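Hi all, long-time lurker, first post. I run a small reading group and we've been trying to get comfortable going from sequence to structure in the token notation. Rather than ask abstract questions, I figured I'd post a concrete chain and ask someone more experienced to write out its structure so we can walk through it together at our next meeting. Sequence below, copied exactly:
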Amino acid sequence: MKIVWAIIPTRSAFIHLRFLFSFFLMPVYFFALSQVPIINISHAVLVFICWHFFAYPASNGYNSYFDKDEGSIALIEKPPTVDKSLYYLSLFMEFMAILLGLMVSFPFGFAVLIYGVLSKLYSHPATRLKKYPIFSFLIVFFFQGAFIYWTSYAAISGLRIFSLGDALFLYAGLICSCLIGASYPLTQIYQHEEDSKRGDKTLSIVLGIKGSFWFAGLFFGLATILLFVYWSNLEQLKNFWLFLICALPVFGVFINWFIQTWEDEKKANFKNMTRMTMISGGMMLIYFMLLNLLK
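-- Answer (accepted) --
Happy to help. Here is the structure in token form:
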């Protein structure tokens, strides 16, 4: 009887799936969608649902179950206590993500499986890749950026990913990774104390609070340079100027937060991190959705 009750998802379990956090990973998908020459509509819909309604939430829930955070986590200021139903719910969501992926194609289903396995290795106590700062960064950098772009593009277009290895295709994936890499240490910047208690040595802890800002600025700058090269090669520089317009609010909030934190490190808190994440994620989503409209 206890097992049956444990399987039934609680309100806490659904909160820890953090569906809203998937919103901030949408720019990668919409960039891929905007660059596909001929879109398979049914595949495009299934890929979107697979990543944003199942794979990402499953990863969030699984991580939350093993982290058992007592302090604020991404977009949840006061997270409820996790229970066993979160573990079972995250596995069910993972299964559904793989099933949807296989409905698109076997390679895409396999890609979703790889993403799920890596997300588990990231947080499970037996491996806990999260406690290795450089390695964990590289996993997030690649698998939430270039990997999602390349596999989504291939799935939406119906083309084989290994036939898409031209320089611009690779550049686009790297742009996504740089944008993900820019935000990565900033999402950890207010959790140094709690992460240290668990023995997790995150990238932000290694860099320090000020170093996290410099790191974020560097990767956002790299993404900007790569976007210039990308659109220049496609002779569509208007799309680069549009990016700069959309990035202005992000740059303004970033500089303002950096200055505040330089004077008082207590400003590196959950509230400011959430504002930064929402504005940067929102403006990048607007930019990549506009690319689809302009297309």
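A couple of things your group might point at:
Confidence is low (pLDDT under 50) at residues 1-5.
Residues 22 and 56 are 6 Å apart (CA to CA).
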